[in-house]
Amino acid sequence: MPVIDAHRIVGAMPKPLRLLLVEDSERDAALLKLHLRRGGYDASVERVDTTAALDAQLRAAPWDVVVSDFNLPGFDAFAARRIVQESGRGIPFIVLSGDFSPSAIEEMAAAGIRYVGKYELGKLVPIIDDCMRERA
């Protein structure tokens, strides 16, 4: 099935999105931005890769969604989610990773954490769409 670029549809306006990305790879961040644009989003993305930077950005600006890699130097998605939850802002949290262990998948499912593999980025935009509808 071909991918439809929403920007090429006459009259389609890109949807604004403020996304806080917890990611240590600039390359992966650039790929995410491309998929968001193809999915119809005009995304403002801020990338952080430490718990201190995550906490600071949560305090500094409003965010529509937080997307986090699973494994980062010095912490993981569970620690990132705790920081997001402790902010008290009710921001949707999605894990995006290239590799999930079966136990990590079980833990995320039990905690109600949405997740998608980096190898299946096409699934991310529909998950973000769902998060945006739920917040509206």
Overview of the structural elements:
This protein starts with 14 loop residues before the first strand and ends with a helix. The strands form two sheets. A five-stranded parallel β-sheet has the order 2-1-3-6-7, sandwiched between helices. Strands 4-5 form a two-stranded antiparallel sheet. Strand 4 and strand 5 form a beta hairpin. The model has no long low-confidence stretch (mean pLDDT 89). It has one domain: Response regulator (Rossmann fold, 3-Layer(aba) Sandwich), CATH 3.40.50. The chain contains five helices and seven strands. It is α/β, with parallel strands linked by helices and 136 residues long. Helix 2 runs parallel beside helix 3.
Overview in brief:
With 136 residues, the protein is of the alpha/beta class. The protein is 40% helix and 24% strand. It is built from 5 helices and 7 strands; from the N terminus they run βαβαβββαβαβα.
The CATH topology is Rossmann fold
| Poorly predicted runs | none
Question: Helix count?
Answer: 5
CATH superfamily annotation = Response regulator
Mean pLDDT: 89
Write the layout of secondary structure elements.
Layout: E1 15-22, H1 26-38, E2 41-48, H2 51-60, E3 65-68, E4 71-72, E5 75-76, H3 77-86, E6 93-97, H4 102-111, E7 114-117, H5 124-135
Parallel strand pairs: 1-2, 1-3, 3-6, 6-7
Antiparallel strand pairs: 4-5
Helix pairs in contact: 2-3
